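If you are new to this repository, start here. Below is one unmodified record pulled from the training split, so you can see the exact layout before writing a loader.
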Amino acid sequence: MKVSEIRREKRKIEIMLILEEFTSKYKIAIVNIAKRPITICDISLGLKSKTDGFVMVDPVPRGAMFQEVNEIFPVVLTDGEKLELYLSYPINEAIIERNEELVITVFDAESNEISEYKLFYYNDKYGFYTEKKAST
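And here is the target side for that same chain:
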């Protein structure tokens, strides 16, 4: 098998944390950017804060992550398909008002853990995205 074929067959996703500017609501978007389907088995969230020089990550309980139903996994995403999940109000408040950083970990069916995400602002009035910074 050629290297180009191996790369084409690899399953990859992109994770985005999106702030909708006028409503101040955050959502996570997971996009399959590969040619093959990928199964998302679970998502883990944590809030990272600095207190007295120490960095702490506080895990978010399963039922407090999203506004919608929290038990939707596993989800199969085909080529280019996107899964969007709005974060719960307490998580939004922690990010916006207390400046805590969100730690996102996505688990797939092949036992991969993906934690890198990009932060975007979405302008609903004009319908465009602006990338702000990369995070891990």
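Two things worth knowing about this chain: The helical segments are 3-9, 89-96. The radius of gyration is 16 Å.
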